[in-house]
């Protein structure tokens, strides 16, 4: 029997405030609804218990500045670890697919982490993906992010990775946090075209979302031929969500899942706690389990205007033209301070809305035709002036990029407040700061 896994982690001891939209009740209503409807008694359903990610599993993917000890990670490690639990079950062929209903969410957390932003500190999906790549040797992974907000953190982590296709359909960043996710954001110099952003107008609705998936996303997935599809499953496209205006229904979400056919779905946003989440999550899981979701109906009906399918088709036609005409936004340099070869320079800034931190970044990527290229990120805390560096050697690194990364780490030790070294090809993580010297994780 083909099984579908499910895992709940409500994170009772983690909250941003009793009245905050990201609070404990987000999963309690869903959990109650699934049990009351008998979903957990279906013969193909297998429930899993939460797990906890190690710091090594986190730091393989993200650099926590100024040090890991600076961050309160308990609930975030369990959310990431629980995603890994279902990923392991999928890799071991215990399940055909699974849904990790966990909080805190993660897709706004990027390659460097100075604090919490968009309710996210660790990126659950990215940590899961790199765990499976390291342990099982997966080469081609796709993320389809259906949260209403652009997953700028996930994009940041994989922007220079030719083995990961990141697709995000979201409400236009000109109308919604985090103000990013436009068509010209298509990937770094060694991964151009491996990022696909589809910003949609408010009021898109079920028909519009489904058209975009069938017309653009599914052909992109078929061309890429991923071994694994991860769905960053945000429920905030729902017509009752207080933070957005996309007008998607619970049944619409079921159809999204049926079309994408993700191997693992990981919960992201969704803040209409009583009138949307229990119904949307149930429709998603029924679709994963191959069950009929047509009877799942929320108690309210859409009140906001919904754009016509013809309007959406015209909009997507123009968007595809804009995407095809987009040009790279980096500058190529030969820098004497860096190891040999040409490096792309991309200035970058990150705002941590939860904590009011401005991060100023200078990203450099070694141009390479054989691998994803060495990545150097120099970061500065806008208020304290602390300066950090992340050096990343990619999966399947060529010998030259391997050597470049090792040289960079040696050169930057002592020059910054702290320095992270991620050798993803050898699964080696090192950290240096003025207090502890060099430490391995």
Written account of the structure:
- The chain is α/β, with parallel strands linked by helices.
- It folds into 2 domains: 4-325, Histone deacetylase domain (Arginase, Chain A, 3-Layer(aba) Sandwich), CATH 3.40.800; 331-440, no CATH class.
- The protein is built from 10 helices and 18 strands.
- Strands 2-1-4-10-9-6-7-8 form an 8-stranded parallel beta sheet, sandwiched between helices. It has an 8-stranded mixed beta sheet with strand order 11-12-13-14-15-16-17-18, covered by helices on one side. Strands 3-5 form a two-stranded parallel ribbon.
- Helix 10 links the parallel strand 15 (387-393) and strand 16 (418-423).
- Helix 3 packs across helix 4 (124-136), helix 6 (205-224) packs parallel to helix 7 (250-260) and helix 6 packs parallel to helix 9 (309-325).
- The protein is globular.
What's the short version?
With 441 residues, the protein is α/β, with parallel strands linked by helices.
Write the layout of secondary structure elements.
Layout (H helix, E strand, L loop, with lengths): L3 E6 L15 H12 L8 E4 L6 H5 L3 E2 L9 H18 L5 E6 L9 E2 L10 H13 L4 E5 L6 H7 L5 E8 L23 E6 L4 H20 L3 E6 L16 H11 L3 E4 L9 H12 L20 H17 L5 E3 L9 E10 L4 E10 L8 E7 L5 E7 L5 H14 L5 E6 L4 E6 L3 E4 L1
Parallel strand pairs: 1-2, 1-4, 3-5, 4-10, 6-7, 6-9, 7-8, 9-10, 15-16
Antiparallel strand pairs: 11-12, 12-13, 13-14, 14-15, 16-17, 17-18
């Amino acid at each position: 029997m083909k099984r579908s896994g499910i895992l709940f982690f409500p994170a009772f001891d983690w909250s941003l405030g009793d009245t905050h939209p990201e609070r404990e009740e987000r999963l309690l209503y869903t959990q109650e609804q699934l049990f009351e409807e008998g979903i957990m008694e279906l013969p193909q359903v297998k429930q899993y218990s939460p797990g906890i990610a190690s710091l090594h599993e986190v730091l393989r993917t993200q650099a926590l500045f100024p040090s890991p000890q600076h961050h309160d990670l308990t609930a975030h490690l369990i959310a990431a670890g629980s995603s890994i639990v279902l990923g392991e079950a999928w890799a071991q062929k215990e399940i055909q697919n699974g849904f990790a209903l966990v909080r805190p969410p993660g897709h706004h957390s990027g390659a460097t982490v100075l604090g919490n932003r968009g309710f996210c500190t660790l990126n659950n999906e990215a940590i899961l993906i790199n765990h499976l790549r390291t342990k099982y040797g997966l080469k081609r992974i796709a993320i389809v992010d259906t949260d209403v907000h652009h997953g700028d953190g996930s994009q940041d982590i994989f922007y220079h990775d030719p083995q990961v296709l990141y697709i995000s359909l979201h409400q236009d960043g000109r109308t919604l946090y985090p103000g990013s996710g436009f068509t010209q954001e298509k990937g770094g110099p060694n991964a151009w075209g491996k990022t696909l952003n589809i910003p949609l107008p408010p009021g898109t609705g079920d028909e519009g979302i489904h058209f975009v998936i069938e017309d653009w996303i599914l052909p992109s997935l078929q061309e890429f031929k991923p071994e694994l599809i991860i769905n960053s499953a945000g429920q905030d496209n729902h017509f009752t969500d207080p933070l957005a205006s996309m007008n998607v229904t619970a049944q619409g979400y079921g159809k999204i899942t049926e079309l994408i056919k993700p191997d693992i779905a990981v919960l992201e946003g969704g803040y209409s706690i009583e009138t949307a989440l229990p119904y949307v999550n149930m429709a998603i899981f029924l679709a994963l389990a191959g069950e009929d979701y047509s009877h799942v109906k929320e108690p309210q009906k859409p009140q906001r205007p919904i754009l016509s399918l013809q309007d959406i088709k015209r909009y997507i036609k123009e968007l595809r033209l804009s995407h095809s005409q987009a040009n790279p936004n980096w500058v190529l340099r030969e820098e004497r301070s860096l190891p040999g070869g040409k490096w792309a320079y991309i200035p970058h800034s990150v705002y941590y809305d939860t904590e009011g931190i401005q991060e100023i970044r200078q990203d450099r990527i070694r141009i390479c035709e054989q691998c994803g290229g060495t990545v150097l990120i120099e970061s500065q805390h806008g208020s304290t002036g602390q300066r950090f560096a992340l050096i990343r050697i990619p999966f399947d690194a060529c010998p030259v990029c391997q050597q470049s990364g090792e040289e960079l780490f040696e050169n930057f030790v002592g020059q910054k407040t702290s320095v992270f070294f991620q050798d993803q090809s050898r699964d080696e993580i090192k950290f240096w700061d003025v207090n502890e010297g060099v430490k391995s994780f």
